[in-house]
Design goal:
The complex is a heterodimer. By secondary structure, chain A is mostly beta strands. Chain A is built from no helices and 11 strands. In chain A, strands 2, 4, 5, 6, 9, 10 and 11 form a 7-stranded mixed β-sheet that branches. In chain B, a hairpin with a 6-residue loop joins strand 3 and strand 4. Chain B has no helices and 9 strands. The chains are: A mainly beta, B mainly beta. Chains A and B meet through strand 5 and strand 10 of A and strand 3, strand 7 and strand 8 of B.
């Protein structure tokens, strides 16, 4: 079965960096666009970033552009999110999610991980 | 304030029917972009309930149904059960913001 397992969350000071990982199994990882979505405490879901199946395209929400970098290693079936210059408002549960085989405006997320909590606090 | 507007909360008794609305605009739902629905239970991975406005993934009970009209979409749950108590989110795309959008979420309470 499809499984997505996030790791790497924790408590970090403002301005510092953190890298999240998402290990995928149960499907051909290299065939799908992959996403990061976050949920701040008491708030709704927010799309963060997407990367194409072949790593050639990536897009970011304005709130993280220039600070976060999404990447993937198809040989390791793993998705990453490098988060730099973290701010208090980045505090959230971060989910990885599987999209369609291409990045599309019609896209949706058919499988999600359970999330990893990132807390930015001094 | 979310671009896709959902009621913050709803409640219903077991066995009843509830409908969760998702109201957008001409740059998202009204532009023809599909609406998808997710169920979030505490401590578990979010679950896709409806994709492409009205399609149910395998394994989702037919008590859940989706529809879309104009600039709005709805998720209906019939035969409400205690296990349906969760947060529900709609999702679409906005061509003026060029982003994937989520609604603000609706907390469903089963009385």
């Amino acid at each position: 079965q499809v499984l997505l397992v996030e790791s790497g969350g924790g408590v970090v000071q403002p301005g510092r960096s953190l890298r999240l990982s998402c290990a995928a199994s149960g499907f051909t990882f290299s065939n799908y666009a992959m996403y990061w979505v976050r949920q701040a405490p008491g708030k709704g879901l927010e799309w963060v970033a997407v990367i194409s199946d072949d790593e050639r395209s990536e897009y970011y929400a304005d709130a993280v552009k220039g600070r976060f970098t999404i990447s993937r290693d198809n040989s390791k079936n793993t998705l990453y999110l490098q988060m730099n210059s973290l701010r208090a408002e980045d505090t959230a549960v971060y989910y990885c999610a599987r999209g369609l085989t291409v990045i599309s405006s019609r896209g949706y997320f058919d499988y999600w991980g359970q999330g990893t909590l990132v807390t930015v606090s001094s | 304030q979310s671009v896709l507007t959902q009621p913050p909360s709803l409640s219903g008794a077991p066995g009843q029917r509830v409908t969760i609305s998702c109201t957008g605009s001409s740059s998202n739902i009204g532009a023809g972009y599909d609406v998808h629905w997710y169920q979030l239970l505490p401590g578990t991975a979010p679950k896709l309930l409806i994709y492409g406005n009205s399609n149910r993934p395998s394994g989702v009970p037919d008590r859940f149904s989706g529809s879309k009209s104009g600039t709005s979409a709805s998720l209906a749950i019939t035969g409400l059960q205690a296990e349906d108590e969760a947060d529900y989110y709609c999702q679409s795309y906005d061509n003026s913001l060029n982003v994937v959008l989520f609604g603000g979420g609706t907390k469903l309470t089963v009385l």
